[in-house]
Structure formats: C-alpha cells, structure tokens
Amino acid sequence: MAACGGCRFFVLTLRTRCGTSRSASSSTLPLTKLRTFSTSARTYSPDSFSSGSRKTPAQVGKPERISPSSGAVQRNLSAVAVPLQGQFRPLCRYDPLDLGDVDENTQKALACKHLSRFIVDPSLARIVTNHLAGDIDEGKAVIFECNPGPGVLTRALLNRGAQRVVALESDPNFLPELQDLESKLDGQLDVVHCDFFKLDPIGHGSMKPPAMYSEKLFSDLAISEVPWSADVPVKIVGIFSHRNEKSILWKLLYNLFERRSIFRYGRVELLMFISQNEYKKLVTRPRDYRNYLAFSVLWQMACDIELLHEEPLSSFLTITKRNKNSTSKSTTSQSDNLCLVRITPREDLFNSHLTPLNGSTLVLMVKQCLAKRKRRLIEQINSWGPGSGSELISKLCFLEDTMTGDVYPDEYKRLFELMEQSGNFTESWLYEEMLETTHTGHA
Q: Is the pTM of this model over 0.85?
C-alpha cells in the first residue's frame, strides 16, 4: 500500500484498536537491539564516540510523559534537533545526546584557567547517572549541576531522562557550548553563569557573576520555598573543589543549621564527589578520638549520609593553572579515591527546642565539646553552668566518666535540648568562648 509514514501509523492504530493481532511489518516499526554498557571507568560503548554519519531510527508513536504536578507535557530533545513549524523534535530514547570521547572532552576542559576537576569520560558519567536513576525517575526535584565544564555529565543526565537540569557554570569559557545546547532543548536545561561554591558571599549590594546571591538564583529559576517537611526540592550534583573542600562543607553546615542560603528553600540534597579523606571524617563514629570531630557529629546529626560509589582520582581530569594534568599534590594523591555521597537533611532535624534561630549555638556547643575529645563531659557542662553537669548526665543515662569523644550525634542534640529546657543556661555560656573558637579554626 502506498502511503506515508503517518498514514501507516494511523492504519496500525486502527487495527490495534479493532483487536487485530497481526504484528507490524519491519518496514513499519524499526527493530531495536538492547545495548548493555560497561560501567568500567575506561571502557567505552559505541555511543561514547561521535558519529556524524549515524542515521536516526524512524520515530515510533509512544505516549508522552505527563508531569504529575502540572499536567504539562515533558519532552526530551536532541542536541541535533531542528525546529519543525516552531516546535522541537522530541528526543527518541535511541537517539541520545552525543557524550563525545575522552580526548575530545579533555581538549574542551583544558580551556579552564583555574584549578578544577572534571568528568570527561562518558563511561564515568553513565556510572554517576546510574546511581542517580531513582532521583531522576522521581522527577520531583530540580537538579543543579556544579561547574559542568565540557558538559559530559550534563548530557548524560538529560539522556537518562532528567526533566530539569540547571548548569551552574563559573568559567565563561564553557558557557557558549552549554548555552548552545540549552537553545536546542525545550526547557530541560537552564545555563547560569554562577559559582555554586561562592553563593551568598559576605556583604550586600550589587553582585557580579559568577558570584551570586541564592535568593536571586532561585527567584530567576522560579523555585519557591517549601516547608522543611516537604520532599527534596533541589538536588546538587558535582565535585567539591579540592582547594577548599572543608571550608565549603563548614559553610554549608552553618547554612543548614540556620536554614539560610540554599536551605532556606527546603531540604536541599547534596549528591557530590568528595575526597576519601573528608568522607572518612564525615562518617567517623564515637571513640575514634583521633578522627571523631565536631565536623563528624554535626553532619551526622543533621543528615542521612549514604556512600553511592568510589572512583579512582585518576578517572577524573584535574586542571592546574598551567592547563596541564595535575597530580593534585596539595590535598590528595592520584592513588586516592573520590566518593560519590548522598547527603540528605533530616526531616526531623528541627523541633521546638532546636530551631534555625539557635542552630548556630548548637554548632558552637559541639565544636567546644569536641575540641578536647578525652575531656569528661560533666566537666565541660559544669564550665558552662556550674553544678549542672550531674543532673544532665543523669538525664542522659551517662556515667560520670563519659568523655566528649564517646557521645553520639543524637545524644549531643538531646543534651542541647535539655540545656535549652533547663533554664540554667543562657546564651552567654557559649558566646564567651566564641572568639577563642573562631581563632582556633574549624575542628
């Protein structure tokens, strides 16, 4: 029968509706083989490489995904899509965005003029998106990607079905290509000249990109505040800067306990690569007197922490100021791993005794306790409120020789709540030592 593709599809639809069991011919629906991709960091699939002569399989009618919240049609679009009567062609799942190859992506990344670390291997990008599959399939949260650079992970996230990705790129050298990709999609990608790690700098007044206030960023993206008990509104994906990783984590920690910056908008989740050294500190348990720090206690108190994946540092491209591959001698060695970690703020973090108004007080209390991890807890409490130690120790069911390095994160939270209820402590008990704590640095 001589008919156009659209007519054949119409006839096939009628036959299906009428209960015809005959299968479609090979000329009507293309046969597609299931491909299995290796997850080895240095193993490549055929789709890893650019193929300018590759033909796109004929499109097959399939249901469009409908957003459960708005009812709006969500479309994935190809980077090579062209406007058709003012519309974009939906991206077929068998015609994904090209992720390039390692050499090509490395050359693009070398445009960076400062210390940075990038994912340039498509296989590694797929490993990351595989671990985020559940997050992407939920489709409830916006994904912020920090400093995507050549955009390998950006495309992988879109290929996996991410409905909205916001690329926060600090280096203007990478903006043109990311913005070109944005223009060829239908709302799945927003590109913003912004450094996530420099959000909300101290001071007020006009701000020049890539520095930015989170209020402007969220406002421009039309992302509103949600209650702390609501679902995660935003997921942050990326790699922590190896220059000031710990400082960034402390800044996020203070913002979390005070519900400032990004946490003003709800329980923002971090899905980040972190150095193995910092990850170990993050999850250290009590009685490890060398490594159990205030840093450990506070993150474990505030968040659920899950290790998703460990990857050798050699799998990433590290750029120095001289635009050459770096051994990162300053903080890590090439034999170290980076850990992909999910950090989700606890829904029950705040209550009537712990609020964003006194959250910073709790942070300082824990820092003082863990400054000397083999000091008896009762002595520390008595230093704040003479004679109060025995009563609080009894309520916590602790022995009098319990040391500060023996106390679990939830027990520190309970101690703080009891101190708030007791009436024997005022905020002066902590602020008297604030300057000393500031000068000694972060524990």
A: no
